[in-house]
Amino acid sequence: MAAPDTITMKMQEVDRLKVIQAVVDGLLMPWKAAEWLDLSRQQIERSCGLNGKFRQKWLV
Q1: Measured between alpha carbons, how far is 1 from 19 in angstroms, rounded to an integer?
Q2: Residue 53 falls within a domain, yes or no?
Q3: Cβ burial, residue 33 (10 Å; 0-12/13-18/19+)
Q4: Mean pLDDT over residues 43-56, rounded?
Q5: Domain hosting residue 28, numbered range
Q6: 41-48 vs 11-24: helix axis angle to the nearest 10?
Q7: Distance (Å, rounded) from C-alpha 30 to C-alpha 44?
Q8: What is the mean pLDDT of residues 43-59?
Q9: How far apart are CA 9 and CA 45, in angstroms?
Q10: Of all residues in the chain, what percent carry a pLDDT higher than 70?
Q11: CA 12 to each of CA 18, 20, 22, 51, 52: distance values in angstroms, whole numbers, following the listed order
């Protein structure tokens, strides 16, 4: 069993997290991330907290 402060993720989830983090850091445009993750630009912006109204902490 994993330690209390660790999480288990699939490689696909790790890749998704890296793309979202790149958008948050300003290294990747939301529209490009949307193409890579097969999501809409609005979904990426909501997930990254770019719209100011809603900040989703985890992408499911």
Answers
A1: 28
A2: yes
A3: buried
A4: 68
A5: 11-58
A6: 80
A7: 6
A8: 64
A9: 23
A10: 77
A11: 10, 13, 15, 25, 27
